[in-house]
Model the fold of this input.
Amino acid sequence: MRSQRVIELQERDIAFLRGLFECRVMTTDHAASLYFDSRRESAKKRLQKLKSAGLIAERSRKQFEPSVLFLSRLGLATLKQQGILELYPAFDIATLTRRAHVSEMTLRHEIAVLDLKVAVHVAARSHENLSIIEFTTWPRLNQFEAAGVVIKPDAFVRIGDRQPDGTVEEHSFYVEVDRSTEPLNSLCERARAYAAHCKSAHLTGRDDTPFMKYQKRPFRVLYVLQSRQHRDNIARRLLATTPPILALVWLATFPEMKRDPFGAIWMRPIDYKMDAQASTPLLKKTNGQAAVSREIHDRFRGDWQIKAALESRLRFTRRGNVSTVPPANLSVGSPARALPTGHIAGEKSASIAIEQTSPPPYRRQALSRRAHPAWPVSR
Done:
């Protein structure tokens, strides 16, 4: 048996061990980006010393596969001695040790989540006004129950955005990562649970005040998906739910997220409805349904018929004998079209010519408003 070397732990070592404990597994590249300012050689040398000391271990791997690290029993005992494990749910060392041994499918999912965590941390360093307050990837720490469903998010993120006056605005996000392994029904059910959680007294702080009266959403939900086609499919399904989910869920693809998470890559269902090529900056301020209504008014001002028709498309409900299902040939954002009126029971088929000018192209939106000061911010 190889003897273990004694090592004097630094503050960065403790931070790395704690991060590895939360994430369960981590590659050398992840560790270098998160804890060694992307200096890979420095990370390799220090990680080798931690392995020699028996604090971390490496999963068996095939040739050319990345090195995947996990916390050893001694590493767990070290965190316990430092009092860090007291901050987490109580488990015995044996259970925590087994937690790091995951299947290959779970491993690929965990690596994908960490890829996103690295992308956000690295991108934040290039923005003076942004800071990562929290980025936890242990689902048990962030789980909640809403609408009869227990939700275990892949991550929870809090981002600080320093304003010109020195104040810091905080933005909170739940993250859901789907590698095309979840059915659409499951993703929509989770979105409805997030919507119910968003309205809960736990977040709003009151039981007797309708959520619509609150000025800001307490969080947003980021869905990171494999392809644009998958993203568009989910956007359509979220619009078809009852009630439709318009702005709570923000959608992007893996390549976009890895390339520039603070860039103009995010699409909300309301963006997809107005323009299939639209997207939104992550740190854009939104005020929920009220903001959506104002956005409709601003983009279609001057023609109440278009506004009413579009808002009826967003409700997808039936009231009495009047169906508000959207007319099939109503194209939002297109030149003047004829709007059929045969959706009212007993009404003869007819059409009303509606004059409409094309709205300005919807700009893609990014995490950081200050990185793109020309983009409008809705309050």
